[in-house]
Amino acid sequence: MANEPLQEQLSLLYQLQERDQELLSVQQKLQEIPSSIEQLEADVVRYEDDMAAKSAELAETEKEQRSKDAELEMNAVHREKYRDEQRVVTSNEAYTALERQIEYLDEVDGEAEDTILILMEKSDQLKEELAALEVAVNREKQKTASETAKLKQELKDLEVEKDEKLKQRKAFLPKIDKRLRDEYHRWMKAQFANRSGAARAKTGFVALSKNGICTSCRITIQQQTLKEAQKYEKQVYCSSCKRLLYVEPATPAESRSTKLSVSTPNTVADRNNRNFQIEQICQERRITELCHFTRIENLQSILQEKLLGRSLLEGRGQQFFFNDSNRFDGHKEAICLSISFPNYQMFYSIRELEKGNQEIGDSQWIVLLLDAKVLWKLDCAFCQRNAAHSSVRSISLEDRRKPEALKGMFGDFYNIRHQDLSIPQDYPTHPQAEVLVFDPIPVQYIKAIHFWDADSQERWLPSNIGTDYETSCTDRRYFYPRQDYEVWSPDKFNSDGVPLS
Questions:
Q1: How far apart are CA 46 and CA 295, in angstroms?
Q2: Residue 220 DSSP code
Q3: Are strands 335-339 and 434-437 parallel, antiparallel or unpaired?
Q4: Ordered per-residue pLDDT tens for the chain, 501 residues
Q5: 3-state DSSP call for residue 335?
Q6: Which CATH number do you get for residue 60?
């Protein structure tokens, strides 16, 4: 018979640990936001420094031009003086000497006039560059002011959230036995005493045991250890990771059913079960690849490190080209992927916009093909259509992380049925269906790089040999629409994206 008081105490301690992990997450965000604000302000300062340097260069150029103008004026005075003297001299030698002086002044003036023309052209160019910089500085200031205001508001909200969580924690603490509580606090304090321990602290002191697996080290628990832990007669620790084991009791539904669970992955064991379901769905639908399109300029840093979310890149101050300046989905920390085929509607619109604004052609884009293992190995959320759409944003992230959300990407979209579209079974129904990946994506998940053409591929490869990547292709079908594009023509949907018939 299980010792219910100890079982209850471990359950409470595990709940405390989850609360503390939420607090750690809030604290981390609180530490990151000031750095993000500093980075935004530093970007403005760099623009202003560039503008100041350009202004100084223009001032120096105009000063030099004025000096040359003054030199011409002075030479004109001397020339007139020499001509006056020529009128009164009485010898040929004196007249010739004055003529040589005038010729010298003409030669000097010619050089000065050439220099003035060069300086005038330089001044005009500098004025144009300065005007462009002024626009850029104002734009950067507006962007910085807007984003800083958002970050400061987020900071205030997080402070309020932190205070509320601390109050709740304080009220929750007395429920836990002081001895157990002190042991937990000593362990946490020891972890934060060193850098490597801080990472361990995030995984917790209490390890949930479910289905015979320690959710901390993910190693099968020895049978004897598991039996002792299930008795709750004493505290039992994992022989591998040394964490305190809490065996989560099976619910009646879990005991009766052999079907795949559909619960929200609140625990590591639940996440393991969720990941297994997602892998099963991918096998059933033969999903093997994911797609991500980006500018070719980003490729080298991706291959040298990994594919990172925008907020992380911005936090580092790393230079990159992003696809969506707005990110109305509200998750700049996430990487957007498509299953089996790119979101051609967005890909096309972005390429057309870039062509108009910056004259960026199709050859400046690439499509990365990634291993579908990302879907169950990393933290993902599944969206039946574009993640920025209100109908998607209204669904909680917890629900979008469920295997059912992945299945939903292949379900009917109003009256549009997947089976009627004549598309492969691994294609989502809606062409803008997407996956949000909240973890950095390591390079080993990249299966291939698709360039627009052989020329852009050959231009990029020789100068980037050090990236240690060989699988590159030029399959243009990833740059074109899906075969069912007529079904998704904008004129067949209302303003909210609902089919008209």
A1: 24
A2: B
A3: antiparallel
A4: 355 688 889 888 988 888 888 888 888 888 888 988 888 888 888 888 988 998 999 999 999 999 999 999 999 999 999 999 999 988 999 999 999 999 999 999 999 999 999 999 999 999 998 898 888 888 888 888 888 888 889 888 889 888 988 999 899 899 999 999 999 999 888 887 776 555 566 668 888 887 788 877 778 888 888 889 888 889 999 888 888 998 866 544 343 333 333 334 455 556 667 888 999 999 999 999 999 999 888 888 888 888 988 888 777 776 667 776 667 788 888 999 999 999 999 988 888 877 766 667 778 889 999 999 999 999 999 999 999 898 898 898 889 999 999 999 999 998 999 989 989 999 999 999 999 999 999 988 998 899 888 888 888 775 554 444 556 677 788 999 999 999 999 999 998 888 987
A5: strand
A6: 1.10.287.1490
Q: Where do we find the tokens 């399959």?
A: 475
Q: Tokens representing 394?
A: 């209204």
Q: What secondary structure does DSSP assign to 386-418, as a single string?
A: -TTSHHHHTS-HHHHTSHHHHHHTTS-BTTB-G
Give the global pTM: 0.48
CA distances from 401 to 146, 170, 248, 355, 417 (A): 31, 31, 22, 36, 23
Please tell me the distance from the alpha carbon of residue 55 to that of residue 45, in angstroms, as a whole number: 15
Domain hosting 28: range is 19-169
CA 333, CA 315: separation in Å to the nearest integer?
Answer: 10
Number of independent structural domains in the chain? 3
d(C-alpha 110, C-alpha 100), whole Å: 15
**Which one, of 439, 330, 336, 334, lies nearest residue 393 by Cα?**
330
Task: Report the half-sphere exposure of 295 (CA within 13 A, side-chain side).
Answer: 15
**Residue type (1 letter), 501:** S
Burial of 345 (0-12, 13-18, 19+ CB in 10 A): middle
As a whole number of angstroms, the longest Cα–Cα distance in the chain is 136
Domain boundary among 256, 289, 312: 256
Same structural domain for residues 272 and 246?
no
